[in-house]
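Can't paste images in this forum, so I'm doing it all in text. The chain is below; anyone willing to post the predicted structure tokens underneath?
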Amino acid sequence: MRKAAWGAALGILGWSGAACAEAPGLAPIPSPQKAGYDKIREADLRADLTFIASDALEGRMSLQPGDDAAVQWIAAEFAKAGLQPAATDAKGAASWYQTVPLVEYRPNPAANSLTLRLGTAEQSWKAPEVLGGYRDDIDLSAPLAFAGYGITAPGVGYDDYRGIDVRGKIVLVFEHEPQENDPASRFNGTGNTRHATNRVKALNAQAHGALAVLVVAEPNRKHPSNLERYTRIGGSAKRVPPLPGQALLDDELRIPVLTVSDTVGAALLAKAGMTASALQTAIDSTVAPQSRLLADTTVSLHHENTSRTRGVSANVVGLLPGSDPALAPETVIISAHHDHDGSNGAEIWHGADDNGSGTVGVVALARAFMANAVKPKRSILFTVFAAEERGLLGSYYMAAHPLRPLATTRAMINFDMIGRNEEPSDQTTGLIEIPKDTTNRLNLIGATYSPDFNRTVQAANRSVGLDLDDRFDHENALNVFFRSDQFPFVLKDVPAMWFNTGFHPDYHHTTDTADRINYVKMTKIVKLAYLSAWRFASEAAPPAFVPDPSGH
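Text version of the structure:
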């Protein structure tokens, strides 16, 4: 880890101990939890976030000195709070760092291409008709198969790969999932399920023997494509040169995933016997696959990178052992991510809300639990993940290499953007309704996968008084469910919820700065997490996980 930037940045850190007054009419804080609850103070959150989002940390880009400084600061605060290091280093010694080996790469869009061969006819496309990156260079030719939405979901009786052999082939799949605008859909009504994200589809294709995945937006969609939604954000999404790609060095996903335009998708389906729109209509109307091999259709992919380097980041991990010998082996995770989008020299993407707010929230909770004389029965693993902005890489790494068994991980509270009032922005306009007053509002994301989890948080909120909102569990245009570090653990059947205050015009812009945070609300959110986590770590019956939530 690099230390120079950290040392320079610590010079601006200040501390304050002013307490946040509680509103009348709220349920009292149980006396065994009161000392820790009172330890969560607005002034401390403000001081910590002013440091984490400062110019000195240069936007905390993964594998850059500013993010390394944040990593070291988190570890130092965990140590001062009195946690135990939860990882081990290469020599077997206790460590605050679960190292995350990464590959950083920069695609060469001028050279990269997709070529379609229909019999003897040939057509090629480059960016922006074909987009995506992969850590390795690729030269690959294979027959093409259409695999519907690319989903295998036994729990809802649906499998796009039933009756089709895609071994040694490239597969084309639609984004999202069937019937997503039907409130009664088996696929969680109008909300996303864990089957709808491209990574899960790619892993499914890989498991069926496919060599690569091409993704095209659903032709009958009622929302922007994933790519269109992303470009609407602006800010770092349109940086020149683009942000580099990063990938796990030993990622379980070992095949490339590229996004193609509607035009390319239509051309690829020339031999399908039906148009793309008709294929989607047939699937959605019957919830029956329309997958097929495409006769006389071959695709060649050429992909190269202008640079490719290795580096190491870290998940910062501290443990509070449970006080009950029988329950201490079980785990509650409290998490956030420490990285953001860095700088281009002249400009800094400060990432105060995203996700400086979550980072200092986890640190505040570590101090609060350790300051409380009474400790919860189950163990709490405080985790601040690496490289979330590059694709949830730190959380995917921990989910694949857990420090404590996931089978006995009872709940996970993830902080990502807990500091702002939700406001209309280019990303959300026309896609989701935003309440007029969001000054006291917190979005809970993932409740459909654990109603028990949701009930516990709602009960804890009687002592805090936030306005709790589950809108993002019932929409499908913004892909919110997939976009933070709780998701890799949901894929492992861990009851997990993302605490989030919503999007705003400063999201992924240089103007996401510490002076724009609603610290009063942020303090209440951290206190809600404290009370909720205490319950998860102490109640006799932990929340149950629902593998396949359905619509209503």
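The chain has two domains: 4-9+30-104+308-538, 109-303. Residues 352-371 form the longest helix (20 residues).
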